[in-house]
């Protein structure tokens, strides 16, 4: 159970930066629709539990070190190749987004130039990815318990101190701020986007774990746990809708309202969440291009990180408004392949399955 919890926490750690670290993500896909977004948040949590379990299981069966073989297996050779290319590019896009987000964080909270936060994020991410996989899992899991406590506390505080009625909140809802015209489509886009974000790292986590049962349980815990975070955070944002509606980083604003010291502490925590996702994205992107035991793997991480740093100056809000919804639409075929694979591959222990090995690049 301990190993499953560690995997579940690591999965949440991978998703957290792109999923709701800044608060813009949850607002875009859930809170901007009003209270009906709560239904979408609950649906998402259930879907993530099932999807994360299945993707991790496939990675475990195939003992893969990158997402390529799994995506080709579940989507077919031709569609799989297309999605492989798109997802690989997307992994890099999320990395750029995380670097840009850290710059915005340093600007909003500390009044420092964005280049400081972005550069620090790139350096720490490169150093961490050049560690081995077990160390990366430990890093990814580290912030999850602290975040859970923080989000629960924020949710309770926001509900107890809100001055808004349900009618007032609904009157402030602006459809132009939403990711899609309808809340259900927005929910499906979020599920698809998060699945696409974590797919590569989920397969790697599954492939690096010996027992399939541990991966299955970890996937469910990670998916449902991530859904709980979304629900709690959505409630917190709704309770302070009038304050967070036009803010780049609502999370930071809500904690700063509690106390300047809490705002400072949360800024550090958000940086950690962004860092977690940046590590997952850089590692997943890099292992798709070069095996981790390749002599040039670490050097290429430096090149990739440097390019991400340069592209991050496009701007956090512009990037998040384009990259996340776009990948939501593109990820629908991937979701379809995962659902089909559930019926194609029966639940069996990995040791009873023929192991599909990868050829050395």
Automatic annotation (TrEMBL):
Transmembrane segments: 33-53, 78-100, 112-129, 136-160, 180-206, 218-241, 261-285, 297-316, 322-343
Coiled coil: none
Keywords of this entry: Membrane, Transmembrane, Transmembrane helix
Domain of life: Bacteria
InterPro entries: YkvI-like
Protein name (Swiss-Prot/TrEMBL): Membrane protein YkvI
Organism: Sporosarcina soli
